[in-house]
Amino acid sequence: MNIENDLLQIQDDIKKYIDSGQAEKMTETETRRLLIDPLITALGWDIKDLECVRQGWRGAKSAGEQKEADYALFLKGKKKPSIIIEAKRFQANLSDKKTQTQTVLYAFLNGVEWCMLTNGHQIIVFYAFDKKDINERLLFDPIDLELLNTPDGLPVKTAADLLGMFTPNSIEDGIPNKYRENHKIRAKVFYCLDEMLRQSDKSLVSLIRKRLDYEFKPHQIAECLKGFSLSKKGVEPPPSPPEDDWKKWHLEKGCGPESRNLLLELDEIIRNNFDADGPNWNHKRYVSYRLGKKWNWISITTFLNMLKVEILVKTGSFNQSEIADKLGLAQFSEGLSLSDVFKLPSSVRIKELNKTSSRIILRFKKDYQLNRKAFLDFLKDARRNFPKSVKQK
After folding, report:
1. Residue 204 belongs to what domain range?
2. Which contiguous run of DSSP H or E holds residue 371?
């Protein structure tokens, strides 16, 4: 069983149905057969074994309009499902609170800990026994299989690790519950440390001062703690600051003097010549320009001495060597270490994400001249070659 490969295959199928226009017409029955059945199989459940997978399972109690679960997954020898799955057609809106609440309530009333809501490309997992708001019952953020390995989505390995908690063996070992408990603990520790840092907590200052052999005075350490923040994978950070604050952070802290000028120059070029929505400053690590409602066409990661610019294009529409020659850039390969990459002059690499989408990765150093015809022509060509499967409908 290789969950990563299976998820990528499902992603390819999703893009195929979108490109052909079939996704818009796909019924719930077709969504189940073409996308949800393969997903259940990818997680190690035998869809043909009625002891393991029951479709149209009726619990003892109903929840509003819901009289049965589309899928109920059973461990061998167990009479109660370990997880139930509510299936929706491909175009269904899974953010509807009524649908989410009904799905969770049905699981809760029938004594099933875990429930999943999916339309074949988006997947939401809830812990049914938590008596909190519906959003707080989420085990992790919704996963969108169409967005795997894109700036807006998860790496496929991360998605495979999260969904892999719901294989029969993982459920039997209690992995989802362990993850949930650890997540809760990490969140509390995160908020505690974050508050201590923001307030320059005296006990934290004293501990740091002791570890540094009393080399510095308390007020010096407290001053250094100002502006510190935490970023822990798998833990929700404190609420993001207003968009203006993120803009200020990118311009004043994310950039150095040279890269700030590059960012402002690039922003002006994009806004004056393209129909992209942006700049969107409210990201922690990058600035984005979108095409459509949610697709990042250009993402710019800020560094003190350079910009990393990622552009989403159709696979096969560009040649790395030709871009390098046209724009006067060096080429870098995936095998280079991060330190070697930073030593390169302004450079380019193309990374294939899947059969339909690739990412052009440009690293611009302070000496690079953006404001010239060759670069604008390249951007126009990239705009024309934005992947069809993620264009606004």
Report:
1. 178-225
2. none
Q: In what order do the strands lie in the sheet with 306-314?
A: 277-280, 286-291, 295-302, 306-314, 357-365, 347-352, 330-331
Determine the 3-state secondary structure of 252 from DSSP: helix
Contacts of 191 (CB under 8 A, 6+ apart): 238
Within this chain, do residues 169 and 183 fall inside the same structural domain, yes or no? Answer: no
Same domain, 51 and 165: yes
H or E element in which residue 298 lies: strand 295-302
Could you report the per-residue pLDDT of 141-200, keeping only the tens digit for each?
Answer: 899 999 998 877 889 999 999 999 999 999 999 999 998 888 777 767 777 887 787 778
Contact 42, 10 (CB under 8 A): yes
- Residue 372: which H helix or E strand, with range? none
Structural domain tally of the chain? 3
Q: Is residue 238 part of a domain?
A: no
Closest listed residue to residue 371, CA positions, set 291, 264, 288: 264
Q: Are residues 91 and 147 located together in one domain of the fold?
A: yes
pTM of the model: 0.55
Q: Is the pLDDT of residue 210 over 90?
A: no
* CATH classification at residue 329: 3.30.1460
CA proximity to 85, closest of 133, 112, 118: 118
What are 93-124's pLDDT values in tens digits?
998 888 898 899 999 999 999 999 999 999 99
**Same-domain status, 292 and 250:** yes
Burial classification of residue 390, based on how many CB atoms lie within 10 Å of its CB (0-12 exposed, 13-18 middle, 19 or more buried): buried
Task: Kindly give the pairing relationship between strand 83-87 and strand 114-118.
Answer: parallel
User: Above pLDDT 90, what percent of the chain?
Assistant: 46
- Is residue 153 located within the same domain as residue 10? yes
Residue type, 32: R
Residue where a domain terminates, one of 158, 173, 188: 173
